[in-house]
Specification:
Number of strands: 19
CATH architecture: Beta Barrel
Number of helices: 3
Distance between the termini: 43 Å
Structural class: mainly beta
Shape: globular
Largest sheet: 17 strands, antiparallel
Radius of gyration: 28 Å
Mean pLDDT: 83
Number of domains: 1
Length: 427
């Protein structure tokens, strides 16, 4: 079922039913005794509504399906130094490898293997997303344009052409500042529950009340408010972002996490070739786990980026930042300072050369205790130095080359040098 562009409204709906049947001859030939007949249903609906010249744009997506899943178990397998993506850190110094002591590392020693355990159980999966964009200036212009068009059509005349002006032109700053406002609201959610156990309104992302019948659920709420969005000389963004996750899919038990972020970002251009961006962020991270330790981390971060482009092919940048976090469960505190200079050079249509250095210093209190991994962006206590150099180059019309180098020095470890070269030919 589909409706397109009817009075700024579009609707698309689909429904699919599948049945899978295994015959006895096939089961005997494959020698698999766990094959069972199954049925699945899938329904998807999308609604788009954008009146007033796009000043208000709303999109709704809904996904409903029946499927089956099995319990899972996380297994960390040792594959040798430099071959994995996780390392084990004995944070509590008990010589026991616990799940939350495996932390991501590009030159790690372990890989994660997710094992399915037990029989598959039928579940119902519901995913819903709502996104709305609004611009008061466009809404006002759209309403006036509709009125003029209706009057012109009633007189038998051609509708007049509309001219779009900058939000702050002609009206001055104070009377017209609100025309430079815009915003975007996003609500998304997913629920996986045992078949027939859906309660409440499963199609509302605001409905988030998992219980013992819930296998997995998550919800994301984001609200952005812009002033002069897209304007190069000056723009402001206010953001509220919240993520809730409830997971009972693994054998370790229920894991519940919540992350709330509130931030202010300002972009400005002082000169034609000099740009400045700074962001102030307040965060709140929480985890409740039946098998791992809980944490409650509150923090602030302030960072800024200054970029200078003396000519079109060359750009230099400098990023500075500071953050402070407090973990309330274990009373841990962390301070982080980082400096990241960089340079980018374009090779006249042939490719691009990039280089940057990232220096980070992390201090903690008490100094003799390890930090929870989410603190300090996962950085270790001490000074970390990381450098990258990459080159993309087009050798010919059908051949490209890529070279990269990375040098990394973590606290208490030797420096690691990594190089990579790749050549691609297209025939």
């Amino acid at each position: 079922f589909s409706i397109r562009d009817w009075r700024s409204l579009s609707v698309n709906a689909e429904y699919t039913h599948r049945e899978k049947t295994f015959y006895e001859a096939y089961i005997a030939a494959t020698n698999e005794g766990n094959l069972e007949d199954s049925k699945s249903d899938l329904a998807q609906v999308r609604v788009d509504f954008a009146p007033w010249d796009g000043g208000l744009s709303t999109s709704l997506k809904t996904h409903l399906s029946n499927t089956r899943i099995a319990r899972k178990k996380r297994n960390y397998i040792y594959v040798g130094t430099g071959n994995g993506i996780y390392v084990w850190e004995d944070r509590n110094e008990n010589a026991v490898k616990e799940e939350d002591e495996y932390v991501p590392d590009p030159d790690g020693e372990y890989v994660l293997y997710v094992e399915r355990i037990g029989d598959f159980q039928p579940i119902t999966e519901v995913r819903t997303g709502v996104r709305m964009k609004w611009e008061p200036g466009k809404i006002l212009r759209g309403q006036k344009s509709e009125v003029r068009s209706q009057r012109s059509e009633a007189r038998g005349q051609r509708p007049p052409l509309t001219t779009h002006h900058s939000p702050l032109t002609k009206t001055g700053w104070w009377p017209g500042w609100w025309k430079g406002l815009s915003g975007e609201t996003s609500l998304e959610g997913e629920q996986k529950v045992q078949r027939g156990a859906i309660r409440g309104n499963p199609f509302s992302p605001l409905s988030f009340s998992p219980d013992s019948t819930t296998v997995r659920a998550w919800r994301r709420i984001r609200q952005d408010v812009y002033l002069l969005r897209g304007k190069r000389t000056f723009s402001v963004r206010l953001r509220y972002n919240r993520n809730d996750r409830w997971d009972n899919e693994y054998t370790g038990g229920v894991r519940e996490t919540r992350t709330v972020e509130q931030s202010l970002r300002v972009r400005s251009r002082f000169l034609e070739k000099l740009n400045l961006e700074w962001t102030c962020t307040k965060t709140d991270q929480r985890r409740t786990d039946q098998s791992l330790s809980d944490y409650r981390i509150a923090g602030w971060e302030l960072n800024g980026r200054l970029s200078y482009r003396p000519r079109s092919a060359l750009e230099t940048s400098l990023k500075l930042g500071w953050s402070r976090e407090h973990e309330h469960e274990q009373d841990l505190r962390a301070n982080r300072i980082f400096i990241k200079p960089g340079i980018s050079y374009s090779l006249r249509g042939k490719g691009r050369l990039r280089a940057h250095v990232d220096w980070t210093s992390v201090t903690s209190s008490p100094s003799d205790r390890s930090l929870v991994y989410p603190m300090a962006k996962g950085r270790r206590i001490g000074e970390t130095l990381n450098g990258d150099l990459t080159l993309d180059y087009r050798i010919g019309r059908y051949m490209t080359a890529f070279l990269s180098y990375n040098g990394r020095k973590d606290p208490g470890r030797k420096i690691i040098h990594t190089g990579r070269m790749e050549v691609k030919a297209y025939f």
